[in-house]
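Can't paste images in this forum, so I'm doing it all in text. The chain is below; anyone willing to post the predicted structure tokens underneath?
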Amino acid sequence: MSDPCILCVAITGSVPTKAANPNVPISVAEQVESTHEAFEAGASICHAHVRNDDETPSSDPEKFARLKEGLEKHCPGMIIQFSTGGRSGAGKTRGGMLSLRPDMASLSVGSNNFPTRVYENPPDLVDWLVSEMRTYEVVPEVEAFDLSHILQAIQLHKAGKLYGRLYVQFVMGVKNAMPADKAVFDFYVEQVKARAPDAAWCAAGIGPNQIVVNEWAIAAGGHTRAGLEDNVRLDRDTLAPSNAALIKRAADLCEKYERPVATWQQAREILGLRSVTV
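Text version of the structure:
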């Protein structure tokens, strides 16, 4: 297999704190530095959340703007993907940063259970986020926590509502949502290939499932995500020293399966994103 594999680094998220791992980047400056290290290790997409000074989640467009400026300066060409996730805000505040025109933004198209709450994505909010992404030419990365989310994403794309090429990420291992199950993963891949043959797909695993799902995705010809948002450890006894260390593990798996790690130029071409000059 020789198709390049896109590595996405999920640098911070909304949940991990420095108490869990002191290497979780919280401030914008820490995020830029951590992303730069992961970029050099092979990541071509940065999946970004922002935090308040007390480490709580934020949807503050000003923080996103400063992060975008720093990433464009220190990680030239890297694909910037903002999160519109529900832990960072409520209602339309979740998409308040889309006017900054990142290359991509995460999009959840349906609701599901999380460890201690319902992750609510009502249809009217999904429709608004989809419309904002089209307005600002932001390509969505659909985060699928359930089979219905995959099918809904395909339907939305066929209806011409999703901007750009369809890109679906299977998120596996969230407590009370879809577990990291190989038979389910294989079924997801089969359904995407059969129902949306022109789509690209990736997969992310939570906690100890991260490296497992990384390997499944790379071996199956897809793309994958790693980083401290999803997993703060290298193993049960060892904290991850950086986002770059988790990306390097995925890059090593690419070598195992004889897949080159995609450059940012290749990743932009694969995902149909606008080209940039650096």
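The domain at 7-271 is CATH 3.20.20.70 (TIM Barrel). Residues 178 and 184 are 9 Å apart (CA to CA).
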